[in-house]
Amino acid sequence: MSKPVLDVTVVTLEGKKSRLKALFDTGSYYSIIRSDVVPKGTVVPVFRKPEVLRTAGRTGTLSALGVVELTFVIGKRMVRDGALVSPDLGRELLIGSKTMQAWGITVRNKGGKTRVHVGSDMRDPEITEVD
After folding, report:
1. What is the mean pLDDT of each run of 10 residues along the chain (131 residues)?
2. How far is residue 33's CA from residue 10's CA, in Å, rounded to a whole number?
């Protein structure tokens, strides 16, 4: 199954926006945004010491400098989650399995076509209502 790449708008807590190419990667736990595409003016809380993550390569690593809370606009759906910020990411944005599982995002392959389905939306009454 291929890993789809879609145009996704990210919105920061400050209301800053960017349109990015997002790879939906079920093999990665974390969502990660490359540091040079974080919208200008975004406050990024940084780690005291960068976190080092291993990649699929034998010797590959990726450094995470901090984390930022983002709203991801995927088609007409909106979801929110934290994303690690890394200067090492090859793509602009990676949507990982933690975000996908939390929001019911699935990657579907049918007849040679790969699609992304977003199950929940942060504006859904089941999400916004506190009982």
Report:
1. 88 97 95 97 96 86 97 97 96 97 94 92 89 75
2. 10
Q: How far is 52 from 65, CA to CA, in rounded Å?
A: 9
State the pLDDT at residue 100.
98
Strand partners, 52: 63
Nearest to 16 by CA among 37, 45, 46: 37
DSSP secondary structure string, 68-125? EEEEEEETTEEEEEEEEEES--SSSEEEEHHHHHHHTEEEEEETTEEEEEE---TTSH
Which residues make beta-bridge pairs with 22?
Answer: 6, 93
Q: What is the pLDDT of residue 2?
A: 66
